[in-house]
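[agent] plan:
  1. take the single chain provided in the ticket
  2. run structure prediction with default settings
  3. attach structure tokens to the ticket
  4. add a short note for the reviewer (M.T.)
[agent] executing step 1
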Amino acid sequence: MDPNGGSSSAGAADGASDPAAARRRHSKKPKYSRFTQQELPACKPILTPGWVISSFIFVGIIFIPIGLASLFASERVVEIVHRYDTDCVPASYRNDMLAYIQSNETNKTCTRTFLVPKQMKSPVYIYYQLDNFYQNHRRYVKSRSDKQLRSRASENDTSSCDPEDVTANKSAIVPCGLIAWSLFNDTYGFSVNNTLLGVSKKNIAWKSDQQHKFGSDVYPKNFQSGGLIGGAKLNSSIPLSQQVDLIVWMRTAALPTFRKLYGKIEVDLEANTELTVVIENNYNTYSFGGKKKLVLSTTSWIGGKNDFLGIAYITLGGLSLFLAISFLLIYIIKPRPLGDPTFLSWNRNPAGHFNFN
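[agent] step 2 finished; step 3 output follows
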């Protein structure tokens, strides 16, 4: 009899009629599967001292030359960096730079002179660099309408552009949003020996952006028409797909210090040439403690000036060689006998099947 008053034979009958109970009884026995037993084909290398030391030596021999080549290429890049946001403010406004930049009566034109340290072969890329400008802020990044930028049919799609979405009379702003509204508006003019140098805007924006993200039938409308102006104005007769400065600016930066391409000088600048730059200092970075820099740079096969890549390769390659030498000395001075690989489980039982009995 069952302790609970039931019949043991009845319980057995219920168990027999219950498939779940039957599965629970049978689950105690392990079920063979090549996947669950991790017996699928796999690489199982034996890391002997020879293999480890050889691998480290190989990495060192490969990485160190790559690092040296990258470092030499970076050193050949000629770069001129000049911070002008403070120097271009008149002495009478040095204690109140915000009043200077916000006034419509102050002269914003500033002339600076540089000496080209080495020959700069064309094209010479012109960048503007902003510091302490957080283009990655969540509300700033979301304040745009990609549908509106792509198609004229979505001109009124400004729901995500607050607070620069519509004008006082509820007309849509094109392009809307804080990113477009804060478009960089400093300008640069270059000359050598009183001869003006042309600044090319050709191919400074990504071709994919021009063809797919900014429509050729979308024209600026009601842009920078409010009481508070954020940055540059746009020519309403030019479609957004041709507004390359806007396209470059709308690709937001991930870090608070960033450079964006302004244009290209397509002639060589010889060494010791005196380069005159006329700057229109219009962009307000003084209200948030930002900095503005003008950057002229050539390029190499790795791009612009970047010492980090070469240093990283040399460091990693040197560390690999150091470890290889250390392991080699340890192996020579105090060797350890290797075990017999025939005792490994996959060698003792090549089929991979284990006997559970």
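[agent] step 4 note for reviewer: The mean pLDDT is 87.
[agent] ticket updated
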